[in-house]
Amino acid sequence: MPHDADDKSIYGAVSWKYSEYNEPYGFLAWQHIFQGLGSIREVSPSTQILVLTEACYSGGAIKFMDDKSLSYWRELEAWPVFLIATAGEAQQSISGLMQLFIEKARDVLEARAETDGSLMSVFENAEDAYWKLQQFVYNQNAKIERQSSANIRRMSEINYSFAKASGIQNTHISTFFT
Known about the structure:
The chain is 39% helix and 8% strand. The chain is globular. It starts with 28 loop residues before the first helix and ends in a 16-residue tail after the last strand. By secondary structure, the protein is mainly alpha-helical. The chain has helices spanning 29-43, 59-62, 68-74, 97-111, 119-133, 135-147, and strands at residues 49-53, 81-85, 159-162.
C-alpha cells in the first residue's frame, strides 16, 4: 500500500508488509491483485476499489476480471472494482496517465460538480488528455493495428476493466478522493 491503511487486516495480500505470505514472490502479478481484492471483498464486500497501475505489462495483471470461469466461481461481475493499467500484457508503459487521472479527479472535486464526475468520465477525460500528449505513440499504434492485429506490437495501450453489474463506473469520483 502506498499509504497507511486504517484496517490493515483486510489489505494483507496487496501489501507485503501486512501479508500472511512471508515471501509472495511465487505469485504472478494478477494473482497478487486477485487475491488481494478477494481478501478485501471477503471482509468488506461493499468496499468500492479503484486500482491504478502505471507499469510495463500491467494489462496482464487486470485481465482476470474478464475471465469467464473466475467470474462464474467468484462472481466477479458483482465486485465493485475498477482497474486501470497503462500498458497491455506484453507492452511497455509510458508514464503520465496516473498524473492526468488525479488532475482530472481534482478538477471535478474542486468544481464541486455533481455532473460529469463519475469514475468512468474522469477516466475517459484522463485517457483523452493522455493520448493528446502521446500523439506519436497513438499514431504508431494505429499504423501497427492496420498492419497486424497482434497487440503485442503496439505500445502503451490503456487497459481498463471493471465489474459492470456493480455499477462502479457510475460512482462519483469523490468516493475515492477527497
